[in-house]
Specification:
0% strand, de novo design (two linked rop proteins)
Length: 213
């Protein structure tokens, strides 16, 4: 092989090394960003689990109030059970919008049921005077705020990953390794881009309406 041939081979080898290093760097960046999405998702799961863990004590405390609306308690209990069924692989972000939508729908159902329970509890002065109930309210409020933050951070990390994934030629490499976009939490109703809002009034009790029977 002449000098010209050896020179061409050398150039091709150098180019192959450069391309290989570039592809390896791109792949590693996608893996790192994908792991960041999974970490953010794990925090979302932790906060939702924290809320679900508060439900049994909250329901138990509310059941002590005379004539408390059984329909409201049933809704909370059933919604919590629904959350347990709407699971994804622990610590791994959902891989499709449909999977995330089912998970979000179950969590939003529980959030709405809890909100309804707390609204109804305003009719029961003995509950508002119950320190355990007030503590649970405060814990629930803090958890809802943490859920909102965790969901926002998940969406941010998913956006970073998806943006990298769509860029050329990264999208070709992602397709080869079957790397797909991550779904986002989306608003299901106007103003629902955040987790269901839970607000409490710890001021002096207002005259209570007669308990529903």
């Amino acid at each position: 092989m002449g000098k010209l041939g050896l020179g061409c081979v050398g150039i091709l080898v150098v180019l192959a090394v450069i391309v290989g290093i570039s592809l390896a760097g791109t792949y590693n960046r996608l893996v790192t960003q994908g792991q960041d999405v999974d970490r953010s998702w794990a925090e979302v799961e932790n906060q939702y689990q924290r809320r679900a863990d508060l439900v049994p004590n909250l329901v138990s405390t509310v059941q002590g109030a005379a004539n408390f609306e059984k329909e409201t308690l049933t809704a909370v209990t059933e919604a919590r059970a629904s959350v347990g069924r709407a699971t994804v692989t622990p610590g791994t972000a959902p891989t499709s919008p449909e999977q995330l939508a089912r998970y979000q729908a179950a969590q939003d159902q529980l959030g709405s049921a809890l909100q309804r329970l707390l609204v109804v509890s305003e009719r029961y002065p003995e509950l508002r005077a119950n320190q355990n109930f007030r503590d649970l309210q405060a814990q629930l409020e803090g958890t809802e705020n943490r859920i909102t933050v965790a969901r926002g951070r998940f969406n941010e990390s998913a956006q970073v990953y998806n943006t990298t994934l769509k860029r050329f030629p990264t999208n070709m490499l992602a397709g080869f390794f079957n790397m797909k976009e991550k779904p986002y939490f989306k608003a299901t109703t106007a103003g629902a881009e955040q987790a269901p809002r839970v607000q409490f009034n710890f001021g002096s009790p207002t005259p209570a309406a007669s308990p529903a029977r």
